[in-house]
Amino acid sequence: MSTYQSFHGLPALAGLATFDAAQQPGLSVEECVHRLKRFHYAFKRLHEIFLARLTAEPVYELKMAFSLHAHYCAEHAAALRQRVGEMREPPLGLDIVPDPALEIFFDEILAAPTTEELLLGIYAHAIPVLGAALEKHRMVTNPLADAPSVRLIKFALVEIEEMDDYGSRAVAAFDEAIGRRKREVEVWLNVLDDALAAAGGLDGTSAKSEHTFTRWYSARPFIYDKVPKRDARFPDPYNMGVNAEAFLYDPAQPPEPKVLMMFYKRLREIDVPEMMASIITETKGKPWGYYRDMTRQLWDEARHAMMGEVGFISLGVDWKKVMVNFTWSFGLNTQLTAKERHGVLYFIEQGLMPKTGKRFEWETAQAAHNVLSALFQDYDWADEVLHARVGRDWYVSQFDNPKEAVEWGDRAWSKVLIGWRQWKDEGLTQHRNWWPDVYLDWCRAQGIEPDKNVLAFHESYETKRADLKVLSASA
């Protein structure tokens, strides 16, 4: 034990460690990099899984959680990439699979056929073992020599713990479904355990098991499902019977009920993560900064949807009575290429920047004296400024000039066919005007008399093809 004393007993070594801890051998640079690369691979694969499964996951809360957790993983993967690059590692080799068995481990989770197995794979296996491996690294590496790695691991562990806590509750919510397939699920979980053991654990520091195992669900290559799915709380996802923008921009309408319509617009943004997940999943070979920035935007759009959810609750209105459609994400995902979808996204975002866009919504919330709506619109507006920058960096940069980029996105948007009458003729929706019921609920909750003009606004409204760009633009 060291007997050296710092000046007046001040914390030594900038508070990073004791002298005794700083004298421990720890990990060599080579061994440190070896482990960091495996952590990076785990975060990258989890990011891939969250986004590849988001669009077709019907449960709204899971879509939102996958959006957030994908954002976390993208950020930590970026931090690990930077750290590896600081440690005598050019070229980095971060696109190399560190172990075939570890690849199978994540392939199996990606290919899980049900929501409950997906949750078990992510939250009962991958997240806990990644957290344990990160904690182990923090404990065995030299806290002074490897302080930069310890710092980024410390931050990662905070969000790993958050994901782990969420995952435990999510898995518990599916206990009954898991129990119905207990035998089959247990066989598959053994495959995961065997794959991890064959890889020498997530960090590769354990003796590799020689026990033979074969792929289970990943025996057939995973096929990304780009068709959005919704749970039973979204009973009419093709419903386009209410034009929020037409009401919002009508100067004859009072600002107070416009807040209700803005909360609908925010909740409707659930389809932006559904669409953006398809862009990110289908776009390969970009620098990691692309995936980090695009996933941040995807997460912001999920936040906006939850702002709408909170908004309805604050007003005492059941948001499940609002027909939140998926026509935008459905149309773009099934009719356009990934680049075209990105073009449409950027084109729409440019329309949100003038005074008739985000500023107008913020001013409307202020005019209505709704503090919560004004706060949400303030941050929504700020987010869109960031998203415009993301668009310039990763979309506009593919063109000779911004004007060409906008025009290309406009042309792509014009290619999307929204089957308004087709869906009605096929019995998929009646495009029911849900606005009067929701508005009356709001009036009752606020204890006010309904405004007849507000109540009747959509009664004579019939969607025309020319309206559809505005009607279905959710970003």
What's the helix-strand series? HHHHHHHHHHHHHHHHHHHHH
Q: Which structural class best describes the helix and strand composition?
A: mainly alpha
Number of domains: 2
Strand content: under 5%
Helical stretch tally: 21
Report how far the terminal alpha carbons are from each other. 61 Å
Overall pLDDT: 93
Report on the biggest sheet. Answer: none
Q: Tell me the overall shape.
A: globular
Give the tally of β-strands: 0
Q: List the uncertain runs.
A: 463-474
Radius of gyration, in Å, reads 25 Å
| Subunit organisation of the chains | single chain
Residues in helix, %: 55-70%
Description:
The protein has 475 residues and is mainly alpha-helical. It has two domains: 24-219, Up-down Bundle (Ferritin); 244-472. The protein has 21 helices and no strands. The protein has helices spanning 19-22, 29-54, 60-85, 100-110, 115-140, 147-173, 175-180, 182-198, 244-248, 255-268, 271-282, 288-314, 327-335, 338-351, 358-367, 371-394, 402-414, 420-425, 435-446, 452-455, 468-472. The protein is globular. It starts with 18 loop residues before the first helix and ends with a helix.
